## 1
Amino acid sequence: MQSAAYWIALLAVVMFLPFLSVWFIIHPFIHTWRRLGPAKTYLIVAAIVLAMMAVLFAVRQPLLSVRFGARPAFAIAGGLLLAASLAIGIAMKRRFPITALFGLPEISPPAAGGTLVTGGIYSHIRHPRYLQVMLGLAAFALFTNYLALYALLAVCLPLIYLVVLFEERELRHRFGEEYERYCQQVPRFLPRIFRRRAPGP
């Protein structure tokens, strides 16, 4: 019988890259997806994601062949990072509609672009969703201590940064000067300890 660490590692290996790839599929070809509409877009993207997951599951044995063993200190650190990831997720969902989490505004016509969310956790960092993903993956890597998850983390961090650049380009296109001002006031991932004061009258 496989350990809990194995199943957590398997879940991460099979799911993280396919779901991250969604944004690389959508953002560079946003105008094509808008012409197709949300229903056809999600159908095509879901088929690609499921195919990727099937391939990764098929090669799971070589991918998960190296584990460095249980390390209590690593497991504790992973638990703390996971708690931080969950806290960010809770704070984010209070402000972010579920349709936006699934990318609906991006593939909707420009007239249905929605509003820029700047309150709550979004007043401290611009991309809590991606910070949550990075912390969660780091937590799984430390908790399970599999080589594959450390490699996945090393691959996903620059990919997430590229996704952020794609998303920010799209947000600048949709919200213009409003988003530019927001970017000047709020950092991408790490909140400022001392926040800048707005200039006086």
## 2
Amino acid sequence: MATEIARDEVYRAERDRIGDFTFDKSVAGVFDDMVTRSVPFYTEIQRMITEIARDFAVPGSAVYDLGCSTGTTFANLHPHVDPSVSFVGFDNAPEMLAKCRGKLEPILHNRPLDLRCRDLNEGADVENASVVALILTLQFIRPLHRNKLMGDIFRGMREQGCLILVEKVLAEESLFNRLFIKYYYDLKRREGYSDTEIAQKREALENVLIPYKLLENRKLLMDTGFREVDVFFKWYNFCGIVAVK
């Protein structure tokens, strides 16, 4: 029997003061609903991630999910990769890791699982990785630390390994940036979010989520040393990029 997903109402009530967005207990409890309703085509993006990752996951290697949240990517990938492939998840929020462990332990059985509480602003210890996923994570890393994090990832990857990066992005031109943001908020309204919820979450994220342009993300990957980089998904101000070492 499927577990009922709690509805995201974190910003439903109007607040006098909006603090910075954090992945605390209130967010962890509704995260699966939040991300499904807030990220366009999230279910399809997850399906595409699984499709790509299973072609790169090598028996005896590790798949890393940096910013693993509640473990959806691992849960989707599990039936499609060799049981000798270990899953390693990093997240800086203990509440999210607890949700992740609760979701994964009943279904992974004997697959090696290593969940670590880590602040990726301080880097990442990656080893023997055939696949590394950064799903809506890099945008929360301070720009000052992104080059180091990407270097840590690259050095810990196997040759022919792939990095899957999904990000909210800025448009290359301000005209399109305004339009894309408008279209995005229209999507959130269609998903049942009120103008109050949209405005309050936007304010909470203002100093926390710092997006790059698509071409800036591509340059970061190429400068790190990835030899092949391409876009596998694009919807207005969201994109998915795959890079191969």
